[in-house]
């Protein structure tokens, strides 16, 4: 039996339940009167090439030094930023990216994310992609989880799953996967619903990739086994 993105979403929802992304502690922002959407943007850069657990440690340090606002991060001593985010790896590069983003938002939008996110999805995506150190996955994470725009995020887990199920796309191509998934889900859900559907589906695929569809997959217990070509081939070979 073949699976499409609608079936994948419903199946994973039933198996894992709601994922409640983006993971963050909102109370810090309530207490400090800061914008939680900026934390999402920071997290999207920090998670480049590293596990989320390493990002959590870096965010904790940034919070401790009250650097989770556009103005504070822009004005911060770069060496302190590097020290705070050391756990996330590539900290020299990432500190530069974080401060470039803060400077940009401060200078162009006066640090006001409402103004920045007011643009159409296409314009905002183009602008994000033009910024230093922001590629498609980072830009789309910011669009979906910070700006609440209907954009599906593709990552390594999604590419691996697309290849193994398989989905009828070039599983090595970010754009192919994104266009296919969005095209299929748009047939089923309204634009308003899509933000939540893309939010959940990406989080569900990450969950599947972390616990089952790993580089060496754990197929026998996987909720997608009956729908997955690769998993069924593995079963036959045992
Ligand atoms: S059955 Fe195996 S290969 Fe298929 S999605 Fe599950 S873990 Fe991945």
Rounded average pLDDT: 96
User: What's the β-strand tally?
Assistant: 0
- CATH homologous superfamily title of the largest domain: Hypothetical protein, domain 2
The third-level CATH topology of the largest domain is Endonuclease III, domain 1
Q: What about the largest sheet? A: none
Specify the oligomeric state.
Answer: single chain
Distinct ligands, ions and cofactors found in the model: iron/sulfur cluster
Number of domains: 2
Strand composition percent: under 5%
Please tell me about this protein's structure:
This protein is mainly alpha-helical. The chain has two domains: 5-20 and 152-237, Endonuclease Iii, domain 2; 34-146, Hypothetical protein, domain 2 (Endonuclease III, domain 1), CATH 1.10.340.30. 64% of the residues lie in helices and 0% in strands. The protein has 14 helices and no strands. It has helices spanning 5-16, 26-32, 36-46, 52-64, 70-75, 78-84, 91-109, 113-117, 121-129, 136-146, 156-164, 174-186, 191-211, 229-237. Helix 3 (36-46) packs across helix 4 (52-64), helix 9 (121-129) crosses helix 10 (136-146) and helix 11 packs across helix 13 (191-211). The model has no long low-confidence stretch (mean pLDDT 96). The structure holds iron/sulfur cluster (SF4). The site of iron/sulfur cluster has 13 residues, from helix 11 and helix 14.
Structure keywords:
binds iron/sulfur cluster; 64% helix; 238 residues; single chain; 2 domains; mainly alpha; Endonuclease Iii, domain 2; Endonuclease III, domain 1; globular
